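EI: anyone free to look at a 516-residue chain?
SC: sure, send it
EI:
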Amino acid sequence: MEPDRQIEIQLGHMCGNRCVFCVSGQRTEMREAFPIAADPVIEKLREARSSGISKLTLLGGEPTIQPEFFRVVRAAVELGFGEIVVFTNGVKTARGSFVDEVLATGGNFTWRLSFQGADARSHDRTTRKLGSFARLVESLENLRARGQRITVNMCVVRSNYESVPAFPALLVRYGVSQLHLDMIRPLDAGERSEDEMRAMMPRYRDLVPALEQMIAGFPPDFDVNVGNLPYCVAPSLLPFIHHDGSPTLTVAIDGDDSLSEPWDKYEVKRRDKVKVDACRTCLFDDRCSGVFDTYRRFYGTEELVPIDRIRLPLVDSERRMFTMHAEPLVHALTEMGAIMQLDSHAQRVFASFGEIRLGLARPGVGAAGTDQFSLFLASAPAIDATTLALLRRVFAKLVEVSGARALHEVGDDAAHHGPMRAQAGLDGRIGGALARLRASAPYRELTWKKARIGDRGRAAAVVLEHEQGTVVTLSCAVEDADEPMRCGYRLDRQLATPPPGLVEGVRAAMSALAGR
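SC: here you go
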């Protein structure tokens, strides 16, 4: 076993549910699932801890109904596992006294609840256990009342996928921190006929509308992810799709109900997956494990249309997968001598020039922005002329390389629009006004030229230029906390008949400045 990995151990196949997609319920129904002894499990725990592993997941079947469950949990706590995940169908956690008994062991627990539908009808017909959804809702209430961390998993099958838009209303109110939906894996389904597999495995493209509606219902910061759905089938869901995960060792139950040796979870999970030749041209090829071979037999591969460099802006016009779009920018920054770092989770790119660290993200506010990216100051020893000069030089280079349209340029307020905001020295009202201006740029035929700060951060001026040469200077200032911010504008020349684009641009800019 290697350090810095997590381990999951299957505590037998015994389960009270009969999920249509799961081998454990099938083996239980066929009287092929039995209690397991604690000693071999505890020995695996010792091996894992001795190699530095500190996160443990207890799987089933249903782990909580194993007679030796508490002995295993107490051993895990005593061995010092920093996090113990209990993956449960809620049969026991529906009783508050059971949860209290687990917590009394002193461990740090995460509860992964197995919802197989976002409403009672979908869940109960998938688990084939009447009342199983109600028990899970009781579990949510018990765990929430005790301040526990809760995550939710669902295996996506025909009988439950249409229910997923109901998940936001169900989960958010109980403080659930993550929802993971995973495509059914045929090899985990037990002994099923061809007709049974066809009845449970949906066509991937049919899932997309329900998944889109579900994700739109969650708060923006909610952790929702969809496992093993090909990126090319659902481009609208790019930021939420994941194949594989954190390095994980699995100890499973072999055919004779003995524990296996630890194996690499995701390497094994890929063994029944296939790709088409065209996948090699896809930008997501290295992070996508393809489709299950059974799926290919049922539905073919015509859905698999690679997302290449040309198609990417078309399918991800909002640049939610920003790091995929940023390759030319990364190359340019590397040529400028920057040390690069990609944060795929936050979808940001960082460039370090000595002690000055700059960041790139999808179009937005930032210190400067274009229709393709925004630039911000992540950290610097000081907000001085050297720092601002670097920002301007980098921004100019990236605009040249990308061919992007500059919407707002680097100004004296650069530090206010990023992690160094507290050091920017701007009055909050002035900073907010400039942020609104940057966020809503451009203004018809008016081009952003510069932003200047005065009066120790209590006044600002933004210079815009009309395509016919007229310069417009917007201004805002504050006197004290009790007085409203004063805003205005002036033109550098008198115009008998101002062009319509100038008038409309000034009106829009002033509305943004005033927060209207």
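EI: The mean pLDDT is 93.
SC: 👍
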